[in-house]
Each structure stands twice: as structure tokens, then as C-alpha cells.
Specification:
alpha/beta, about 375 residues, 6-stranded mixed beta sheet, elongated
């Protein structure tokens, strides 16, 4: 069944991708033909086909140098394409409604087609350009958390980052600003809640610089991390070794006691891509330390889908994974999928506080629309 499902699903995905590309290409060409009568159709199809094929370049066995260039083109085109698709759809719906209520005659006049295409193109490119710019801005978000007297000390400060996706476009450059913001907090503890790398530590352009930046993170009690779904697979050992050499304490369904009253727990991701060597996610009862009412328990769990596992034995859960949708309208979908896909959440008096960050990096297109790259500061009292 698995062998059958794989090829069939791949064919369906390719057909859907081809159909929406034809739709966007048709909209672009029809508008160009109005602006530039006699535009060369073959040249347009060739250029558009190359852009469209670039979106699946990551699955092709290309030389690394070629793949780097094509990957950059693919990332920017994919982000632009998403909003071209949305805007052309919206414009066509508006025109269709106009025809239904007889505001717009049929066949649709050329001037209406011109302004429809112009509006779609202008809005799509404007939103994409904003998204590219916003994805390179690192915001700062803060929360104050009242643990009802259970904080190890009043004012304990936790710096939370997640979803760095190091190895993806612009991620290493943005890491400099991320570390600067973390160090500016003068945090007691730094938590990295998974998806530290973008599938493979070997894709880093400068591993030495990344390692040096991790080593430069300042905190009173150290830097702790759990792994995300993009940190697994065959590169698990290299990821673990890289983090150990960077001064980051990786917790794989383990906990560490800090001082006398604080316990930090790191969970194994529930669905790591390629698995995590021989490790599997254990039951929470086998991971948490024996209950001690006098100690604060903080859990790093990359994916917030299973926060219902935790009860009053846990005080705070920090997570990422959702990117807060990253691109509007995806945040509407992630909001429907999770009890909390971003921000602060506490189900009831017996449940822990939950903080889900939108992450400090991007996956896929280097865009942020309707969400931000952020570094989070959590102050406990």
C-alpha cells in the first residue's frame, strides 16, 4: 500500500501544481498582452516554465553549486507565486460577482481585464516585497508569568527561540541579530525549542561562524535545546555533535536540575522527519522527574499539538513549530489545528502555562506575512 500511495500522491501533487501554475501563467500573460501587444508567447512560456520547475528543484539531483542558485530563485519565486495565485483568484471572483449582478457586462471589456490584472499584480508584488523585508526583521516579544509562588526566584528570565532553520535562505545572517537580542535580555536561561537546522547541518555555509555565535550566547544557567521535526533523520548524530560543540545542552526526553528549585525538560519531537536514530518519544510519566511541589518544571516540546499530555506537575511549556502560519492566510489554518498556535495559553487552573513562539526563522519561502520572526522573553514571578 505504501508503494502504491507514494507514486499516486506524487502524481496528484504534480497535477495540482501544474493546474495552478497554468492558471497564474494565463492571468499574467493575458495582462501582459494588453500592456504589450504582440508579446512573445514562446518566450513567456519558457521563462515561466523555468520559474515553475524551480519550485521542485530541491527534489532533483543537481550539483550543489547549481542547486544553491536554483534554490534561491525557487524560494523567492514560490513566495511571490503564492500571492499571485491568491490575488488573481480574488480578482476573478470580484469580476464574476460583478457579472452576476450585471455591473460588469459580458464579455468582459478589455479595460476591466487590464485593471483586474494590474490590481492583482500590484497587490501580490507589494505583499511579497513586504514579506521578504519582514522576514529579515527580528522582533521582540515579552510575557510575564505568575506561577503562584512557584518561581525559583522573582524575576527569573527565560529567553526563548525556536525554528531557526539554519541552512535555509538568510538564516545564518539573521542569527547574528537573534543572538544580539538574546544577549541583550541578560537571561537566566536560554531555551531553543527545536527546528534548529533546516534538515541537515551540512548545508550551513559557515559552520564555524554558527558555532561561534551559539558559544557567544550569554545566560546565567546555560543554553538548553530540544530537537524539532527538521532536526532528525540520518543527520541526527551530526546535529547532536554540533550542538554539544557549541555549548548547547540537548535534552532528548531528559531533564536537568538547575540550582535547587528549577528543572528543565526537553522532549523528543512527536514526528521527526527521518526519525531520531533509535530513540522514540516516551510517555510523559517516564520523562518527568518525581514530583516535588517546591520545584518549578519547564518543558521544551517543539510541537504544541500534544500539550494535553501535561498536567499540574508541569508549570510551563515552551514550543514553536507552527511559525504562527508564517504566511497569511496559513495562520487561519494553523489556528484551527491547535489549541494554541501562537502566544500564551492556560486551559484551566490545573494545567500548565503554554507559550508558543512564531519562531525566529522561516521555512520554505523567506517571507513573513501576518507573522513575525521573534525572540521571546518570559519573566517568571
Amino acid at each position: 500500500m505504501r508503494l502504491f500511495f507514494g507514486p499516486v500522491s506524487a502524481v496528484i501533487a504534480v497535477l495540482i501544481l501544474a493546474a495552478i501554475n497554468i492558471y497564474v501563467a494565463r492571468g499574467l500573460y493575458r495582462w501582459l498582452a494588453l500592456v504589450i501587444p504582440g508579446v512573445n508567447l514562446k518566450a513567456f512560456i519558457t521563462i515561466y516554465a523555468l520559474l515553475a520547475v524551480s519550485m521542485i528543484a530541491g527534489f532533483l539531483p543537481l550539483p550543489s553549486a547549481v542547486n544553491a542558485v536554483v534554490g534561491r530563485i525557487s524560494a523567492y519565486w514560490m513566495g511571490t507565486f503564492i500571492y499571485l495565485l491568491i490575488c488573481f483568484l480574488a480578482a476573478d471572483i470580484v469580476v464574476l460577482l460583478g457579472r452576476i449582478v450585471r455591473i460588469i457586462p459580458g464579455p468582459v471589456p478589455p479595460d476591466v481585464l487590464f485593471f483586474k490584472g494590474l490590481a492583482a499584480l500590484f497587490i501580490a508584488l507589494g505583499v511579497a516585497c513586504y514579506g521578504f523585508f519582514n522576514a529579515n526583521q527580528i522582533r521582540f516579544t515579552s510575557y510575564e508569568m505568575d506561577l503562584q509562588g512557584k518561581s525559583p526566584r522573582d524575576g527569573l528570565k527565560i529567553a526563548l527561540i525556536s525554528d531557526l532553520h539554519l541552512g535555509s535562505l538568510n538564516a545564518e545572517r539573521n542569527l547574528v541579530a537573534i543572538v544580539e537580542k538574546v544577549n541583550g535580555m541578560e537571561a537566566d536561561i536560554v531555551c531553543i525549542a527545536g527546528d534548529i537546522f533546516n534538515d541537515d547541518v551540512n548545508t550551513l555555509s559557515s559552520p564555524e561562524n554558527v558555532m561561534g555565535l551559539f558559544k557567544s550566547i550569554k545566560s546565567a544557567y546555560g543554553v538548553y535545546a530540544c530537537m524539532g521535526n527538521h532536526d532528525g533523520g540520518r543527520k541526527f548524530d551530526s546535529v547532536s555533535g554540533f550542538l554539544a560543540g557549541s555549548g548547547v545542552r540537548l535534552l532528548n526526553d531528559e531533564y536537568e536540575t538547575i540550582g535547587e528549585n528549577l528543572i528543565i525538560v526537553g522532549r523528543i519531537d512527536r514526528s521527526p522527519i527521518g526519525g531520531l536514530a533509535e530513540m522514540t518519544r516516551r510517555d510523559i510519566s517516564d520523562v518527568l522527574p518525581p514530583q516535588d511541589a517546591g520545584k518549578t518544571v519547564i518543558v521544551m516540546d517543539h510541537n504544541p499539538a500534544r500539550i494535553d499530555e501535561y498536567g499540574k506537575e508541569t508549570d510551563l511549556i515552551v514550543a514553536g513549530h507552527t511559525h504562527n502560519g508564517q504566511l497569511f492566510p496559513m495562520n487561519l489554518i494553523t489556528n484551527a489545528m491547535y489549541a494554541v498556535q501562537y502566544g500564551h495559553y492556560k486551559k484551566d487552573a490545573d494545567s500548565p502555562h503554554v507559550i508558543v513562539t512564531s519562531g525566529a526563522g522561516t521555512w520554505g519561502p523567506p517571507l513573513r506575512v501576518g507573522s513575525n520572526n521573534e525572540v521571546v522573553c518570559i519573566t517568571l514571578s
